[in-house]
Design brief:
With 304 residues, the protein is α/β, with parallel strands linked by helices. The protein folds into three domains: 56 residues, Vcp-like ATPase, Chain A, domain 2 (Roll), CATH 3.10.330; 196 residues, 3-Layer(aba) Sandwich (Rossmann fold); 30 residues.
């Protein structure tokens, strides 16, 4: 990135009151706020971190926008993914420049922005959304952020599967992701990276059952909580409010094990399954005892 701003650059203006304004520099245009007006041309050929002034004399700090700024300051017609969740998703999908990643549930494109940011400039994002109006909003947001060139937007259902195969990673931001696990397996390369996002625990349970039946392993369920602090050196303390819950992130890997894909489940899951089998056998023995005549019952059930 250039040390100086240039025409068509995306910049962030930070006001003294903490407001953040994202704008793309275009000569001849001006930025208006309650603090006054600034000509775009006056912001070109300046180093990032420069203090600039409106025509009313109010100071603003011009900064390079972060990924958080790009994700959260977009036009939205759906609930967007929080930046802390997007960072974990990129991590769990193992994304890097050159990765091919599929997304289902484009929405307003906030997560798509994060995915494209991670795989650019040599990778590709293939994003599917069933609603045309959402696709158009996402397209405009991606274009504004300068990332549309790394994304293929598909206005289509994924019930019949994805158009891509051997993808490195795939993320489902859908209400019922367990319905589409077979489609996900067909689109992913063996051992690829999978993530699904759901807001409630009962959805996670349904997803876990589906993943086990569909031959996924290395299953992890996580919740990302971020607690901010007030940056006052002599009075450091937590912020008064925080987001208590966003979504549950479930990650997994499709495996090739014709004999027994269940061998790769977590040890906790295996212990639970063994305990359920034992409980069932004990219940069967108890039922058998109850069916015997009173005088012929053994004192205790015969444990397996």
């Amino acid at each position: 990135m250039s040390l100086l701003t240039a025409a068509d650059d995306l910049v962030l203006l930070l006001t003294g009151g903490g407001k953040r304004h994202l704008l793309r520099l275009q000569p001849g245009r001006s930025f208006h706020s309650n603090l006054g007006k600034i000509q775009h041309s006056d912001l070109i050929d300046l180093p990032y971190g420069t203090t600039v002034y409106s025509h009313l004399g109010h100071a603003m700090l011009m900064l390079e926008p972060s990924l958080d700024d790009r994700m959260t300051r977009i036009k939205r017609n759906t609930q967007i993914i929080f930046p802390q969740d997007a960072a974990m998703i990129v991590r769990r999908l193992n994304l890097r420049a050159g990765s091919r990643v599929i997304e289902a549930g484009t929405g307003s494109g906030a997560l798509t922005i994060s995915l494209a940011w991670a795989v650019a400039p040599t990778g590709r994002v293939y994003s599917y959304e069933i609603r045309d109006d959402h696709v158009q909003v996402a397209r405009n947001n991606l274009e504004k952020m300068g990332l549309l060139q790394y994304v293929d937007l598909h206005s289509a259902s994924i019930l019949e599967g994805f158009r891509q195969t051997n993808a490195d990673a795939l993320v489902l931001d859908l209400r019922t992701p367990w319905i589409f696990l077979e489609q996900a397996r067909e689109a992913l390369r063996p051992g690829g990276f999978f993530v699904a996002l759901v807001p409630t625990t009962n959805q996670v349970s349904d997803l876990l059952h589906g993943l086990e039946k569909s031959g996924f392993a290395d299953i992890i369920v996580e919740e990302v909580l971020v607690r901010g602090y007030k940056p006052v050196p002599d009075r450091l303390r937590p912020d008064d409010t925080m987001v208590g819950h966003t979504v549950f992130l479930t990650s997994a890997r499709p495996v090739v094990d014709p004999e027994d894909s269940g061998r790769w489940l977590s040890e906790e899951r295996k212990r639970y399954a063994a305990r359920k089998i034992l409980e069932e056998r004990i219940a069967e023995e108890e039922a058998r005892r109850e069916s015997q005549p009173e005088g012929k019952r053994v004192p205790h059930p015969k444990l397996p």
